[in-house]
Amino acid sequence: MMLSAHRVIAVGICAGLLAVIAWSRSGLALDSRATGEGAATQSPAKKGVALCTLCHNENWRYPVWAIFQSKHAVMADQRTPFADGRGTGAGACETCHGVSDNHVANAVAMPPKVVFRGKNANPASEQNQVCLACHQSGLRMHWKGSLHESSDVGCVACHQIHTGRDRVLDKITQPEVCFGCHKAQREQINRISHHPIKEGKIACTQCHNPHGSAGPTLLLKTTLNETCFTCHAEKRGPFLWEHSPVREDCTHCHTPHGSIHRPLLKARIPWLCQECHSSIFHPSAAYSGNNVSLLGAPDRVLAKSCLNCHSQVHGSNHPAGVRKQR
Amino acid sequence: MIAKTNRRGIGMSARRFGCVAVATACLLPADGFGQQDSPALAGLTPRTIEEEIAVRELTRTSSGVEIGLGTVSSDSYKFGEYSGLKKQGPYLLGNIDFVKRSPYDSENANYWSLKGTSLGLASRNLRLEAGNQGNYKLWLEVDRLPQNQTESARTIFSGVGGANLTLPAGWAPITAADAVNTAAGRTTRAAKIDPFERTFDVGQERKNHVIGLSKFLSPNWELRASFKHEIKQGNKITGALIGNDEGNLRAVLIPEPVDYLTNQFETTLEYSGAKSQIQLGYYLSLFNNRNNSLIWQNPYAAVAGWNPAAGFPAGQGQLGLSPDNRFHQLTASGGVNFTETTRLTGNLALGRMTQDQAFLPYTINPALAATTPLPRSSLEGRIDTTLANLNLTSRPLPKLNLRASYRYDERDNRTPQAQYLYIAGDSQNQQGVATDRARVNLPFGTKQNLLKLDGDYEIWRRTRLNAGYDYDEIKRTFSEVDRTREQTWRLGLRRSVSETFTGAINLAHSNRSGSPYNGNAPYLASYSPQFTGPQTAFGTQFENHPLLRKFSLADRDRDKLRFSVTLTPVERVQLQLSADTNRDNYRNSVLGLTDSNSASYSLDASFTPAENITAYAYYTYANINSIQKGREYGVDKAAQATPLASTKDWLADANDRIDTVGIGFKIDAITNKLDLGGEYLYSQSIGKIDVFTGPAIATAGTPLPDLKTRLNGINLYAKYRLQNHAALKVNILHQKFDSADWGLDNVVPATTPLVLNTGQLSPRYSVTVIGFSFSYRYW
């Protein structure tokens, strides 16, 4: 019965998707070119392209042709800087670089109104205002006031615009971009215990939203634990026997980017546990090299240490699991 | 054990996923691709075939494929931890990157892409995306992520991979006489254990399938929906205990089966306007564990304090594994620009976590008497979460930015409480209410109010001074501290975008204090009054020592310093220096964590000696240091409860140091013909723990051996371009890894008298991987 129900759901989802695609192609598309607009080359966007590429061709010091490989240059998408339907105002390159008649008249002496890199670059806040004109919703909604915004990080500090492949949008190359500033994290991912970031299987943006978020430390979800539970849902509970620091914040015990104490622990067990547990007998005992050299009680320090017995540290749902042993 | 319906059939198999992908691809917008050339580019309006090709290559995204063969020199689970390259021998190299997009000035915005990485490995990924830009988008993704943990673990049990572990025929139980910490005891145990040991692989694999759709309902409204189906299978090592008291605990490390299914569905409806933006969303996460419990046969003979039926051969233990659970969340967020310089954003997220899996019995051993039944058949666990967030930013003056934010985060744990007369470690009869076996569950909850105020002012051109203040209040239920308050003051200076110098320095100081620390509050709330009442007479009505302060609740002073500077002394050289330090002092903690410091310093240099050569080098030093204090006590509990200092105090000083060096280069050796590149990585960590003990502690503390890891890795490649956008590439990677871990090294299953461990080794390897590939790129 269960199998059948899920098959029905799976088939339903596929059928729904195909129906939506078919609907999308049935005339409700936003492509204004379907209206049969003629004389396309007369649009302001194409005039702008023709003008700018007179100088900024493939031989120019700063070639810009690769912008035409990108989503930004798709003229049929009415949201883009190069959209044909932008009317008579700024269009094409000037959508982002500003109306730059002075630059056109005197290219050497006068830079464009908005410059994103090099010695004539505008302040990050001015650059970002250009991007925010279109990118202020969704993941960017909380950009204003975010840590990166208030640190004067420009959009182009991470993003490449004049390319068909922005390396910060690629899971494998993205960490290189982030590590340009975040040196401590670059080191941490090489520790013996780490998330598979350097292996290209987890990108920084699978946990963080660098554009700002409602969560702490630019996390994608609204709380740290919710972010962790997206991949570690088995630790979500609620459990009969909760472990209070776990319920509150995974980083009370774990450090996410890398640790020399497996698995991603902030300190070595048993001392990590003893930071909070000091009850009578073995939890309060002093453990040292004696236990390793087998003089003392090696059971409590070697192998998984406290977890040799208290294995359910994230919480237990066993009625006899109050000590996290069940 | 509660068996569940086998769910393998309901997961979206790779084949079914492939069918969906193919079906979708058949419906992709196929018209319009490549039907129009690019006449608008004034600099190179194509007139000849060569010019046309040039325009195409410059303005259209290329596609490519790379295929080849590689070989791994030796087995190593650690080397192939996440890549899947865990076994010696050949493997297939395969990467694809197909993109088909209408020319930028085409009359349509259709596109599709198919990207696959590591297709010959267990860590492969394949993603198909298609759509009409600005109209709709569909994506499908298949991903595999292995985590190979060790190949050297050993077990005596049969049934590895399942949820019922049994001992082999002929097993002689470990007796109380065997379980002594002497050389003779180890010899006796080894004689019993070793003949039945066999190794087993430890690790898991995640199989992810994602399907998503985005559709613009109008130019301003977008609907997005995605569904992620993840299967995680494999095993892990888990501690399993039988016993009920300090003197009769017997444990064994056993393979726990991992067979999880997590389904996540997320949908958002988004409005995007120039003045305001809104996003409404729903998120659902369903977790299912195929195994409710793990049962193992007790390898120990019954000892004093156990019901004899708990020992070998009839005695069993049962662990409760992660229960099924679900999480729903409704979200709403929005932003509005009141003026060009003032913006308000807000979030509201209402969530509910629930868990109601049927309880396991107090014990798996039927011979143990359990006269009082469970108070409930399942938990009906429920936590309601509320997150509200408001953020106001404004630039009242051209040089002045102000920011204010408020955050409310509540986790209202509405799980019902009850008293459970538990049977400890499947080893004794049920005890009465007046014992420490009568416990009430504590549904912890929190409520946070966080206010942040920040401002920055441009004191000189492109130089800004910033200051901020935070007020963070957290209220907790069933906690030692009902309420903590933390205030933070921040000050910083940064200079941005200069030809030769950019830099920033930020300082922060925090002070956390709270309501009185009632160390025994959770104790009194969980244990029965019939048990705790008589304890008062002896001044021992506590579980954790009264002088202990848990670090997450303790009064704390925190200082942070972050510093970074980038210098470009000459045109082709750039230097970066950065520091990130944190210093915590728990000022009123007599016992527990008293100090915790961390620091990371990095020096980076990049060098471009010629147009065709780039090189970089960096060094990072990281240090983590902590000091904690404890007091050893037992039958002298009452006497040790109150003195601020004792001859039974101990101190642990832990110090981790990590040094990392990276060097790399790229050379365009023969223009458009030969690329060379290489990277070298060295990472070494040393973890030191010193323990100092008071004179009344029986055995004086001694330092522990160093925990060590050392990674040396070098990766070299050469790529030779053939004609027609084809290339040959050779890649050589060599890594050598050593580690020393006193918790694993020289520890065999018989080493620990009361824990039959797995005897796994700390990882070390020396592996070389050579890969040859052919790649082709086209437009």
Q: Could you characterize what this model shows?
A:
Chain A is mostly helical. Chain A is built from 13 helices and no strands. With 779 residues, chain B is mainly β. Helices cover 7% and strands 55% of the residues of chain B. Chain B has helices at residues 14-26, 49-59, 183-193, 521-526, 529-535, 637-640, and strands spanning 63-72, 89-101, 110-117, 125-132, 136-155, 164-165, 198-218, 221-242, 250-272, 276-289, 293-297, 316-320, 325-339, 342-355, 381-397, 400-413, 419-421, 438-440, 446-460, 463-476, 483-495, 501-514, 556-570, 573-585, 592-610, 613-631, 649-670, 674-693, 707-721, 726-740, 755-756, 765-778. In chain B, the strands form 3 sheets. Chain B has a 26-stranded antiparallel beta barrel. Chain B has a 3-stranded mixed β-sheet with strand order 6-11-12, with no helix packed on it. A two-stranded antiparallel ribbon of chain B has the order 17-18. Chain B starts with 13 loop residues before the first helix and ends with a strand. Mean pLDDT of chain B is 92; it is low at 1-39. At the A-B interface, helix 1, helix 2, helix 9, helix 11 and helix 13 of A face helix 1, helix 2, strand 5, strand 7 and strand 8 of B.
Q: Please state the overall shape of chain B, judged from the principal axes of the Cα atoms.
A: globular
Largest interface: A-B, 149 and 217 residues
Name the assembly state: heterodimer
Query: What proportion strand of chain B?
Result: over 45%
Using DSSP, what is the number of strands of chain B? Answer: 32
Query: How is the main sheet of chain B built?
Result: 26 strands, antiparallel, barrel
Taking Cα atoms only, what radius of gyration of chain B do you get, to the nearest Å?
Answer: 32 Å
Radius of gyration of chain A: 28 Å
Mean pLDDT of chain B: 92
DSSP helical segment count of chain B = 6
Proportion of residues in extended strands of chain A:
under 5%
Structural class assignment of chain A: mainly alpha
SSE string of chain A:
HHHHHHHHHHHHH
User: Residue-averaged pLDDT of chain A, rounded?
Assistant: 86
Which residues of chain A sit in consecutive blocks of at least 5 with pLDDT less than 50? 20-41
Gross morphology of chain A is elongated
Number of strands of chain A: 0
| Helical content of chain A (DSSP H or I, runs of 4+) | 25-40%
Low-confidence stretches of chain B: 1-39
Distance between the termini of chain A: 32 Å
Sheet having the most strands of chain A: none
